[in-house]
Automatic annotation (TrEMBL):
Function in brief: Part of the tripartite ATP-independent periplasmic (TRAP) transport system.
Subcellular locations according to the entry: Cell inner membrane; Cell membrane
Species per Swiss-Prot/TrEMBL record: Sedimentitalea todarodis
Chief location bin: membrane
Keywords carried by this UniProt record: Cell inner membrane, Cell membrane, Membrane, Transmembrane, Transmembrane helix, Transport
Domain Tripartite ATP-independent periplasmic transporters DctQ component: 30-167
Pfam families registered for this protein in UniProt: DctQ (PF04290)
Membrane-related topology note: Multi-pass membrane protein
InterPro entries linked: DctQ
The name this protein goes by in its record: TRAP transporter small permease protein
Family indicated by similarity: Belongs to the TRAP transporter small permease family.
Subunit organization: The complex comprises the extracytoplasmic solute receptor protein and the two transmembrane proteins.
Residues annotated as transmembrane: 12-36, 48-68, 95-117, 140-163
Amino acid sequence: MAQTGGLAGRIAGGVMSIANVAATVWILLLMVLILADVIGRNAFLSPIAGVPEMVKFSIVGIVFLQIAHTHRHGQMIRSDALLGMLMLRRPRIGALLDLVMQLAGAGVSLMIARAVWPKAVRAIDRGEMEGIAGHFQMPVWPFLVIVAGGAALLALSFLMSAISAARKVAA
């Protein structure tokens, strides 16, 4: 795990950890909701309205809350056979390849955040809802804000890793 020191790095890491904990709590609450829905369906023939919609949006929200923390701690899946070989044999070239990959990840993450943010603003302005009117509806914007924010945090994590890789290239 590459660390970028200083106050900014600690604050970013703290925000990523808080987002990760929030996602973990969300998972636990979602499990309770699903269990209550199953019991309600089978024991009382009365399901909880909106559970499928809540689960559908929750999965995406949970992923984007946890992804920056996952990357920051080096637990994101990636194929690094070539990078590992280069790091052993030619550390500066390996660090340069890592730098390029981290910058590419930051770029893609920023593109996701930039693409989703206007949709979140539009959903807030229009009061967009998911579900069936009169049965169950929930606002869409919180999930879009989470996706945009999570993607921005992921971009920050990639940039922090890119700084660490750049330091190795320069060494």
